[in-house]
Amino acid sequence: MDQPKIEEYIHAGETTVNNYLLLRYAELGMTNEQFLIYLQAKRILDQGGTFPDLQAIANTLHLTQNTVANDLNGLIQQGLAELTNSKNANGQTIEKLSFDGLIRRLLDLPQTELPVTTAAISAPGSKNARQEVFATVESEFRRPLSSFELQTVGKWLDEEHFTPEMILLALKEAVLNGVYNFKYIQQILVNWQQNNIRTAAEVERHRSERKLQMGKNNNQKNGKPQIRIHEIPLVDIFHPENN
């Protein structure tokens, strides 16, 4: 095999697309052409770009630049894409494209039966468990989640196979500690997984054991050594025969 080509393949990286989107993008009103353009744009955005090179996408898909621009404008008009302007450190205006609207619209689609081969997409338990996770996270963070954050939660469910119950418990743990951070929630989930903690009861038991251990450590650290006072027998000096 050609070693340079192998290295080029590895260094090109990967673009992750949720299977739920692959199955239901047409229900959002996206055409096949728009979906392919979305994938190419997402690839560029995931690599750190703020706005995709329309001509580069056109060359890759063998389309004209006008076709790509028209399809992207269509996604914006449908509320599936958003275009914003901001200033950089040099005062220059930067256009930024995001697909947050697409993810929100996808999650608002009515529940439907998915093919058996995609059973992993359906969260265990309640049919609305998946939607509940996204809604609860947004509620606790008190703001709409970004597309990256939505994808992160999706990965927890679909790729790392954390249950909705455990994700909500980890979220609760983070909120109680006053840490509104996705990496912190991820660390909690990984820690529980490594300790084979998979239910609410096991989480509570682990929390109790940790508090007990912390209490012991604090006592050992802060407690003063106690001198044991032995009982001194009383001696009857007036009646020694009773001693």
The largest sheet is: 2 strands, antiparallel
Q: Can you count the beta strands?
A: 2
Q: Between the first and last Cα atoms, what is the distance in angstroms?
A: 100 Å
Secondary-structure element string: HHHHHEEHHHHHH
Give the domain tally. 2
Integer average pLDDT = 79
Multimeric organization: single chain
Low-confidence stretches: 116-127, 224-238
CATH topology of the largest domain: Arc Repressor Mutant, subunit A
Q: Helical residue percent?
A: 40-55%
CATH superfamily membership of the largest domain: Winged helix-like DNA-binding domain superfamily/Winged helix DNA-binding domain
CATH architecture of the largest domain: Orthogonal Bundle
Walk across the major sheet and give the strand order. Answer: 1-2
Highest CATH level, the class of the largest domain: Mainly Alpha
Content-based structural category? mainly alpha
| Radius of gyration, CA atoms, in whole angstroms | 29 Å
Shape category: elongated
User: Hey, roughly how much beta strand do the residues contain?
Assistant: under 5%
Please give the count of helices: 11
